[in-house]
Design goal:
Elements lengths: L6 E8 L5 E2 L3 H5 L10 H8 L3 E2 L13 H11 L13 E5 L10 H7 L8 E3 L7 H14 L5 E8 L8 H12 L8 H4 L8 E8 L9 E10 L8 E3 L1 E3 L5 E3 L5 H6 L5 E3 L1 H23 L8 E4 L7 H10 L13 H4 L6 H10 L9 E8 L4 E9 L1
Parallel strand pairs: 4-5, 4-6, 13-14
Antiparallel strand pairs: 1-7, 1-8, 2-3, 6-7, 8-15, 9-12, 10-11, 14-15
Pfam family, one: ACP_syn_III_C
InterPro entries: ACP_syn_III_C, Ketoacyl_synth_N, Thiolase-like
GO molecular function: acyltransferase activity
């Protein structure tokens, strides 16, 4: 059976409301225990994020659901040809912050897009890699000949679980116990890291009739969960030995007093492992595919913090795969860390920047600290 080529023929993004500068973050997320955060400036100084987007009004009132963010990005693919929405075979939607446990995120996005009609819908679960998993399913659907046109999306709505109200019961409980009423850094850290937004790609088995398209040459992924502990998590907690306890094992009082549904990060585990493990996979991919640094014209790494930029460069350089900074393209400082949507936002911006030339190749890297997974892809401008 011959395999069909796959092209990204359209991109679209949706960023809710206006950009939020760092000094206004607590106007939207609120103050924990009524006091400004002591860690905010420290975290922001290291992550390099200057503005981000929230699906919130000042004071914390929501303006969108996650499904609505993704639907707006998908609808944007067809702003010049709304009838194109009736010609989609498959829709895939990845996120780490669905609006509910059930139904799946994808079908809720589909529910916001009745104009798509009855189609196949896939909902990859996970964290930052979920958007790339959605892309891979769409890619494989077309590559196999099972579909001719597919849409993939990545979206996040993390701000709702970063609002101060999520932590107030825990803080009050600590006060009642005469303990220090401060939320653990592993919980507060991510309040200053994560943003809201969505991006979408239109994939087809032939390039667009006009303008540039991106041929999707390959997508590779790997999980190191077999050798690594849980690092970023929500809906559970780690004990002192590192064992993970999911929310179903808590009683109602424990869920509230320990703010189990806040998003947490094991900072030490993250810092020691996220870059070296990614470097291991880079080495394997380059060797297996016979690639050199000269084969990469643009490098689009999704990183949560500018802190990791030099570390990624150093690891790749040691491996003999150091990609010069002039080939890097990121928008973290302006858009923030939008998880599963971030790679969509970067590709969209670069594609519409006027910088790309036919024949150039883009290497995408998306790491996921949840339990250390990585996704890579190579695109060629056509």
């Amino acid at each position: 059976m011959s395999l069909s080529p796959v092209y990204i023929t359209g991109t679209s993004i949706f960023l809710p409301n206006n950009p939020v500068p760092s000094e206004e973050m607590e106007d939207y997320l609120g103050f924990i225990n009524g006091k400004p955060s002591k860690s905010r400036k420290i975290v922001l100084r290291n992550n390099g994020i200057e503005t981000r987007y929230y699906a919130l009004k000042k004071g914390g009132e929501p303006t969108h659901t996650n499904a609505e963010l993704a639907a707006e990005a998908i609808r944007g693919l067809f702003k010049d040809d709304p009838s194109g929405m009736t010609k989609i075979d498959v829709m895939t939607s990845g996120t780490s912050s669905p609006d509910q446990l059930m139904p799946s995120h994808g079908v809720m996005v589909h529910g916001c897009l009745p104009e798509l009609g009855a189609i196949e819908v896939i909902s990859p679960a996970g964290n930052c890699c979920a958007g790339m998993h959605a892309l891979k399913y769409a890619y494989l659907s077309i590559r196999s000949g099972e579909a001719h046109r597919a849409v993939s999306s990545g979206s996040e709505l993390m701000s709702l679980v970063m609002r101060s109200g999520v932590f107030e019961e825990e803080v009050q409980h600590l006060i009642d116990l005469h303990e220090n009423p401060y939320v653990a850094f592993k919980k507060e850290f991510l309040r200053w890291m994560l943003s809201d937004g969505a991006g979408a790609f239109l994939l087809e088995d032939k390039p667009a009739a006009t303008g540039l398209s991106l041929r999707l040459d390959w997508i590779d992924g790997v999980s190191y969960a077999g050798e690594m502990d849980t690092c970023m998590y929500q809906g559970g907690e780690k004990d002192e030995e590192g064992h993970f306890k999911g929310f179903k094992l808590y009683d109602s009082e424990g869920l509230i007093h320990e703010s189990v549904f806040s998003v947490k990060q094991d900072i030490g585990l993250l810092s020691d492992n996220i870059v070296p493990l990614g470097g291991r996979k880079v080495k394997e991919i380059f060797e297996r595919r016979g690639l050199t640094v000269d084969d990469v014209d643009w490098f689009l790494p999704h990183i949560s913090s500018e802190f990791f930029k030099s570390k990624i460069f150093e690891v790749m350089e040691v491996l003999g795969r150091g990609i010069p900074y002039e080939k890097w393209f990121m928008n973290l400082s302006r858009l923030g860390n939008v998880g599963a949507a971030s790679i969509y936002l970067m590709v969209h911006e670069l594609l519409h920047s006027g910088k790309l030339k036919k024949g150039e190749r883009l290497l995408l890297l998306v790491p996921e600290s949840a339990r250390f997974s990585y996704m890579f892809a190579m695109l060629t401008v056509v």
